Amino acid sequence: MGREILQRLRLPVVAAPMFLVSGPDMVIAAARSGIVGAFPTPNCRTSEEVDAWMARIVAETADAPGLWAANLVTHSSNARLADDLAMVAKHKPPIVITALGSPAPAIDVVHSYGGLVLADVVNEKLGRKAAAAGADGLVAVASGAGGHTGSLSPFAFVSVLREFFDGIVCVGGAIADGAGVAGAVAAGADLVYVGTRFLAAEESLADAEYKAMVVNSRAEDLVVSPAITGTPASWLKPSLEKAGYDLSDLGAPATRDYGGDPAKKWRDLWAAGQGLHSITASEPLADIVDTLEDGWNAARERLHTFGRTQ
């Protein structure tokens, strides 16, 4: 399995795995709409719940034109990694995305059944490490991404990775429409993470207040800080203020720890990326994909006009 499996997709888009937001309904709707649907396994409180979610996704995407992916936290503080990897071996997601750690723990398991391992990276150094560890692809988490975010622009990051890596490159960060997807692919990406655009989708696990905040916010309503999790993340200012944070002094970075119950840090503190302007209502995910496709086709046509003989 390699790039060829991506050719079945309607659009080169991954509905990015979002903590406490992406669940089975979103993953299934994405795959049925012809893109990649992904969820983080920490969205499940137990490995038994991971088992149930994956079983449902497998059953309901068997004939889907798209794909699905499981997102694993491979940081050493994740005590449940071995159990979640056992679920991966059982249900065989076509794509496994590793985050906040080396992809190495997942590679043998996923490759044993022919799956692909993509590794989240936020800079060139981590990209080189993930490539050396045997990742099939790199997910360039760039500036403008929601949740844990990088600092390089999407275009610069793709260019940097392509200097040493010829595998699959997925890029995410402030890409929320079809034109952005086309631009990223033209710049050298194979896939594009789209997260924020799906936050308010009807299939999202986000509660009504979170969705309303996303609909009513713009990029200037974001702040990037490591004070919450120890890793720089992009947060909605109104959610931090509601939780009692002083935006003028968010404090020192927290200890980096992804074990225990991470939901305690995120349940009332809501993340988003710079694509907020594209969201005007809560709507079915399939309708969002239709809109992305319209923008994608229009962008392709604009690109095609250059160089034509008049």
List the helices and strands and how they pair.
Elements: H1 3-6, E1 13-15, H2 24-32, E2 36-40, H3 47-60, E3 67-73, H4 81-91, E4 95-99, H5 104-112, E5 116-121, H6 124-132, E6 137-141, E7 147-148, H7 154-162, E8 168-172, H8 178-186, E9 191-194, H9 208-215, E10 222-225, E11 233-236, H10 237-242, H11 263-266, H12 285-305
Parallel strand pairs: 1-2, 1-9, 2-3, 3-4, 4-5, 5-6, 6-8, 8-9
Antiparallel strand pairs: 7-11, 10-11
Helix pairs in contact: 2-3, 3-4, 4-5, 8-12
Summarize the structure in words.
By secondary structure, the protein is α/β, with parallel strands linked by helices. The chain has a single domain, classed as Alpha-Beta Barrel (TIM Barrel), CATH 3.20.20. It has helices at 3-6, 24-32, 47-60, 81-91, 104-112, 124-132, 154-162, 178-186, 208-215, 237-242, 263-266, 285-305; strands spanning 13-15, 36-40, 67-73, 95-99, 116-121, 137-141, 147-148, 168-172, 191-194, 222-225, 233-236. The strands form 2 sheets. Strands 1-2-3-4-5-6-8-9 form an 8-stranded parallel barrel, surrounded by 6 helices. Strands 7-11-10 form a 3-stranded antiparallel beta sheet. A hairpin with a 7-residue loop joins strand 10 and strand 11 (233-236).
Identify the CATH class. Answer: Alpha Beta
Following the backbone from N to C, one meets helices and strands in this order, namely HEHEHEHEHEHEEHEHEHEEHHH
Instruction: Please indicate the count of domains.
Output: 1
Total DSSP E strands: 11
Overall 3D shape: globular
Question: Radius of gyration, Cα only, in angstroms?
Answer: 18 Å
User: Roughly how much helix do the residues carry, as a percent range?
Assistant: 25-40%
- From the N-terminal CA to the C-terminal CA, the straight-line distance is 42 Å
Named CATH topology: TIM Barrel
Secondary structural class = alpha/beta
How many helix segments? Answer: 12
Q: What name goes with the CATH superfamily?
A: Aldolase class I
In what order do the strands lie side by side in the largest sheet? 1-2-3-4-5-6-8-9
Task: Provide the low-confidence segments as ranges.
Answer: none
> What's the story with the biggest beta sheet?
8 strands, parallel, barrel
Q: Round the mean pLDDT to the nearest integer and report it.
A: 93
Strand content: 15-25%
Keywords: Flavoprotein, FMN, Monooxygenase, Oxidoreductase
Organism: Qipengyuania spongiae
Family: Belongs to the nitronate monooxygenase family. NMO class I subfamily.
Protein name: Nitronate monooxygenase
